[in-house]
Hints:
The protein is mainly beta and about 190 residues long.
Amino acid sequence: MKSAFLLLLSLAWVHAQTPPPAGALQWKETTVKLETLGRLGALPASFEFKNTGKKPVTITSIQTSCGCTVAESSQRVTAPGDTGEITLQYTPTGGPGVRYYHVTVQTDEAGVPAYALKLQVVHEPRVAMDKRLLVWEQGEPRKAKVVKLTPKPGDPIRIVGAKAEKDLFKFELKDGAAPGEKLLTVTP
Length: 188
């Protein structure tokens, strides 16, 4: 009998717990997808919101998870019923792939946790390389290695040459089998 009583008490305690209060700012999207499409300069993105509460909401801070992303608000105080946006400037870093960056928005709303937003960045370079790194092992003959360069289908980019920062390598560029494809021969 004691075990049944204890079980009922613990179920009542779980049921009595309430989630933290929802904030007044309602976001059009909490995850925004950004495709770099091979661009290297700063790229814009934004999170739109509306104050659905009965009081003005002040944004007290905006923090991003990476120095590659700068965020700011269109306004610090948003009146009830008004809209606003958090704008981002993302500067691409690293190689191809999908990356996620977090934006944390703190407000003056009592008892409301920070808003967690996410920027999903798809970095697909305009030119694909079958090898991203060439390595010559110690003692290996200094023979040429080839990298196949293939522009993204439909992209008007043309590969016209290659240059090293220092004169440590010799480059030769030839046409490949597919349209626009190039074979880059690298010799140390």
